[in-house]
Amino acid sequence: MVKSRFNSIDELPDSHKETLEKHFTNLDKDTFVMTGLPIELSGGVLARYSRANTGLRLTLANEFLDENGQPSELKGSELIERVVNAFGDDSVGELVSVQVGMENISILLTKTIEDLRIGMSPIEKSTRYVPYDEKAEDGNWRYLRPKEIMDSEFADEYIEACDGMFEVYSNLVPPLVDYFKGIFPEDNFSINFERDGKTVELKKDDLKTNEEKRQFRVGYKFTVRCAALDVARGLLPASTLTNMGFNINGRGAVNLLTRLKSSNLDEDQRKAIELENELEKVIPTFIRKNRRIEEWTEIDKNMQALADKLFAGYVPEFPKPVTLVRNADYLTEVVSYSLYPYTNLSLEQIMDVVDELPAEGKEGVIKTSVGKRDSRRDRTDRGLEAGYPITFDTVMAYGEWRDVHRHRMLSQQRQPLTCDLGFVMAPEIGIVGMEEEVKQTVEKMHSLNRKLRESGFGLAAQNTGLLGDRIRSVFAYNMREAQHKLELRTQPMGHYGYRLTCMGEADQIIERHPWAEMCLQYVNRDDPGGKIARAKEQSWIVGKNLQSGVDSGIDL
Question: What's this model's pTM, rounded to 2 decimal places?
Fold first, then answer.
């Protein structure tokens, strides 16, 4: 009869050792990697680890193998049920993670998913690298037909407006490619390549082999196409269908499912059910506590009514790209931050109004934003995150905002995507002779956007927003995140639009806090308007690929 409890690896029978050897990179060192176990079992082993007096490998052998020495997923699930669902140790939910793919979802939904930030690492199809100039197999352009709009009188107008945007986008890309080839001819492109132990810069005439010449052409084509897509993507609607993948832990999955289920948008709710069905197959115990929170709808309704009353008659000031917001007393900052998503005013305009409220008026806003909470898990939204030393109110194109939205070590609030702040018309569109055509198509979409909002479609109207429409958002952070965000997002390979915004943020921080210049010495101010931003990066990539024998054409 096999013992049920072992005090050392040496005591294990061969069947148990063979199992451990499959699931640990070694059995005799203090550092090792656990691999290949069912997800709920690996989570259970790690959860038990904190209360076991044996090491991880013996904990698995003693408590999670059956009599034949095989892993028992049931035992892992039972422990998670006990620890997470019975005793409420939420942190155990962070011990397992899964890789998720969600395809044919709107760009709008990707932003809702990425709002989670903590507990997940996302990546999505890039509108800078991938063109949207081909229809799907069913003959339709790739955009969401939201139920809210398709079941309304505006369905035909929505289809006409979106089809028109995709057609103009598709017509715009080829002349933009030709334009960028003209201002950045192939003779100006180079690759960094190692020859005779030295890194050399090779122009077209310096290339020797057919493979060097081929990869050079691939790198050049990629560079000018990215420049063209950077400009053209502003015409894509926020309803454009895309793909995204993310790594998410159990706790993050509960939060994400709860957020999507609690949304009033049909797409969010449908995709929540689809995601839940798939997660049930791999981490069912970890996601059991997700639910729809009806109170969030009531809170949003009450906050919107409160904001409409407080700011009646106020008109948004001319949108500045970047404003370093003044510091105020803590209560004013929290109240203003809480109201921000329910208006189209700047944060400083909101603060000016809140400043005039009596203390009981400010506390009334907090009470409304907190709403009715049934448990500690019914957490208040991001308004309570106010109070960072650095707070920026920014206005930028939605497509550019999507890139900086990914940052985690900060607080963010945003207002709904509308046409109120205008469309960013890139000068290259006029240069290639398509400005009037673009203007007419954009105005059709903007007209529909206004009709939908006036008719009470709420957040569903955002499907008619464009990546080139400006959105107002707040980013609040400390100096360490300023160092990370601003030094990263001002690098020349980044999009010129958000580079300018981040340069402006750095300048205003240093103006207010001169000592900050010591912390932000790698903010890059070179070529802030450069549209061939990928040339240097692609030069390096092609050179590295050639040296490694990798085909650069794979990425195209």
Answer: 0.89
